[in-house]
Design brief:
The structure holds 2 protein chains of 2 kinds. By secondary structure, chain A is an all-alpha fold. Chain A contains 21 helices and no strands. The termini of chain A are far apart. In chain A, 43% of the residues are buried. By secondary structure, chain B is of the alpha+beta class. The mean pLDDT of chain B is 91. Classes of the chains: A mainly alpha, B alpha+beta.
């Protein structure tokens, strides 16, 4: 990311917040800010970043907003109103409204794809075109998601204010969920991939860092989420080979893991586990930290990971947690114990059972355990079934190649 | 999540369409356009096209000798792809909900299929 782009994206949310505070109209202010961002992305790389990026954006977007209101007013022949709209030189307030903006973008009336698009644009400072390229959908689709999202927020009657204290926890949880979704939407760069492609994982980390800095984190979960993202993204360079094929965790070249990210993630998760009530993101970060600090799969503290998964299963049960726990159990007690636990989980009548049986990851885990227990034929069949069920191309190639390799051993 | 909604036709559905008056056919086209407009305004639209008659299709064969584009035979195929919608929606449930609105669903001629995500994500 160039300096100009970084300056622009960093300044975008607080500049927008200033504008919304001043004029009260989130919908139109956000449009005006988008125009200012597009102007800045053309000018700043050429002429240099202004001394105060935020003041520049506020001033340019403010002019666009007033022009817009004036032309609306003219159309409705109510010129008188325009006189009231001359910008009063209000000083930029010291209060940071970034959190308010974040929470507005994740308003509960919005569907997830709309929350993602609006957060990336209004808080992330990305252009509609950049978001469209990152999500691989047409620009018009993203534009429509955003304008519809803003119309819904307007219809909900929620102004630009912090949610009530009793709503705040749920809203923050939804916001973390959206940030995690943006993170997982992110691509692992593979060779030959277009450089113009927006890196959503990096954007998600940047935004989560911003949230982490903007709001006190009593639950510890924002810190946990930031740590989880850092500890996961640290492995990115090792996750795919030169041809873009996936490299499983136990075969990754750990020298290619990003030490600085690991150190930061480990220190964040250590600090938060000490001070806050334990939460699901913290636990997932702690699991990632155990992996990241191990020199190899064999040297990994699987007993520790198993314990963390058992806590996680109590706090936030789900099929992926069940599978993670089974993998850890198999590393501690052997593949047969893992396979037995997998059978039990699939028969489990509590509702997660059937869902688990259909998921491609269940087949992949079963395949790995069968392979380790020496049941080559059954493992090959399970890998092939997992390959059929996955919705991800690179993962499909990996699983199919495992199935093929085991077939040729026979 | 992207889904491809494939709309097929069969002899029964084609006969019904051909029995329609021009006004009824115009209503039919307007109905599809309405779905297009709705998907565009909900931010779920990626692409949609209706396909020309199967008699216009060419089978393409390429070998060292060059490329040969030959006509059919496609006539013995009863169910033919007539058009498609590519949508980007929250999940399968929503894709199915959209798919159920096409009149061809009454004939069992609609297929919803997830699109493979080609990004390398996560650890395996």
């Amino acid at each position: 990311m160039s300096d100009a782009v970084r300056a622009l994206r960093d300044a975008a949310p607080s500049a927008l917040a200033v504008l919304v505070r001043r004029y009260g109209d989130f919908e139109a202010c956000e449009d005006a800010m988008q125009e200012a961002l597009i102007a800045a992305s053309a000018q700043w790389p050429r002429d240099g970043v202004p001394d105060s990026p935020r003041a520049w954006l506020v001033s340019v977007a403010g002019r666009r907003y007033i022009d817009q209101v004036r032309s609306d007013v003219a159309r409705r022949r109510r010129e008188a109103l325009a006189a009231d709209l001359e910008p009063t030189p209000t000083p930029v307030p010291a209060v940071d409204d970034t959190l308010t903006l974040f929470l507005l973008c994740c308003h509960p009336a919005l569907a997830r794809p709309a929350q993602v698009a609006l957060t990336l644009r209004a808080v992330g400072g990305l252009t509609t075109a950049e978001i469209a390229r990152a999500l691989l959908v047409p620009e018009a689709t993203v534009a429509q998601r955003i304008s519809r999202a803003k119309a819904r927020i307007r219809a909900s009657g929620e102004g630009f204010r912090m949610p009530r204290a009793d709503e705040l926890d749920a809203r923050l949880a939804a916001l973390r969920n959206v940030l995690y979704l943006i993170f997982t939407e992110g691509h692992t760069a593979s060779s030959g991939e277009s450089l113009a492609r927006i890196d959503l994982s990096a954007e998600a980390i940047r935004l989560t860092r911003q949230l982490h800095d903007a709001a006190p984190d009593a639950s510890g979960e924002t810190t946990g989420l930031l740590a989880l993202m850092l500890l996961t993204d640290a492995r990115r360079a090792a996750r795919a080979d030169a041809a873009g094929a996936l490299v499983p965790l136990d075969e990754q070249d750990r020298d290619r893991w990003d030490r600085a990210m690991i150190d930061e993630g480990v220190s964040l998760v250590t600090e938060v586990l000490d001070r806050a009530p334990i939460g699901p993101y913290q636990l997932q970060a702690a699991i990632a930290a155990v992996h990241d600090e191990a020199a190899s799969t064999e040297a990994t503290d699987w007993i520790e990971i198993l314990g963390l998964y058992e806590l996680l299963a109590r706090l936030a049960p789900g099929p992926m947690v069940t599978l993670g726990r089974i993998v850890a159990l198999a590393m501690v007690e052997g593949p047969e114990a893992g396979l037995a636990a997998l059978d039990r989980a699939e028969d489990d009548g509590r509702g997660t059972g059937p869902m688990l049986a259909e998921h491609h990851r269940t087949w992949a885990v079963r395949a790995h355990l069968l392979e380790r227990s020496g049941s080559t034929d059954a493992a090959s069949l399970a890998f092939a079934e997992a390959a059929r069920r996955t919705l991800n191309g690179p993962e499909q190639r990996y699983l199919a190649s495992k199935a093929e390799a085991l077939r040729s051993i026979r | 999540m992207k889904y491809l909604i494939q709309i097929y036709s069969n002899p029964e559905s084609r006969a019904m369409w051909e029995s329609f008056s021009p006004e009824q056919q115009a209503e039919g086209y307007a109905y599809y356009q309405g779905i297009n407009d709705e998907l565009a305004s909900s931010g779920e639209f990626v692409a949609s096209e209706a396909l020309a008659d199967i008699s216009m299709a060419k089978r393409v064969t390429h070998s060292d000798g060059g490329t040969v584009a030959s006509d059919g035979p496609f006539a013995e195929t009863k169910e033919l792809l007539a058009g498609f919608y590519l949508v980007d929606v929250e999940g399968e449930q929503r894709a199915v909900e959209i798919a159920a609105r096409f009149p061809e669903a009454e004939f069992g001629l609609i297929e919803v299929r997830p699109v493979l995500d080609m990004a390398a994500r996560g650890d395996v």
